[in-house]
Amino acid sequence: MISLILQKAKIAVAILFVLAIPTLVSAQVSTGVPLAQPLDDKTKVIPSSPNIFIDYFNMSSSWLFRVAIGFTVLWVLIGGVMFMSSGNNQSRRQEAISRITWSIVGLLVLLFTGVILRTLNSIFFV
Q1: Which H helix or E strand runs over 34?
Q2: How far does Cα 37 stand from its chain's mean position?
Q3: Which of 53, 86, 100, 121 is the most buried (most CB within 10 A)?
Q4: Distance between CA 54 and CA 10 in Å, rounded?
Q5: Does residue 39 sit within a domain?
Q6: 13 neighbors 2 (Cβ within 8 angstroms)
């Protein structure tokens, strides 16, 4: 009889301990997540939060815009070389013009994404 009560008490203590683990873990002080490759000289640690990926993405957005501009310049150069080497081939010339046009349109869409999202956000989420 006593061994049965002790077994149930052990099980109850184990269940309480398992339920208390999230409380114990959340009580720890977190200084943040150190970055293996910092984005700039100022940011070596990102503060821990549920939105850590969004914070990191927002911090790296200027770098991503620079990469996008680089790709746009590359595609415009490739389109220019295609245009110059097309000769009398009208289909290749149209393909080059299309490549240049759509690379610039893509860059403009990327640059105006913030305006588009703010407009949609104010329309749908007042």
Answers
A1: strand 33-34
A2: 15
A3: 100
A4: 43
A5: no
A6: no
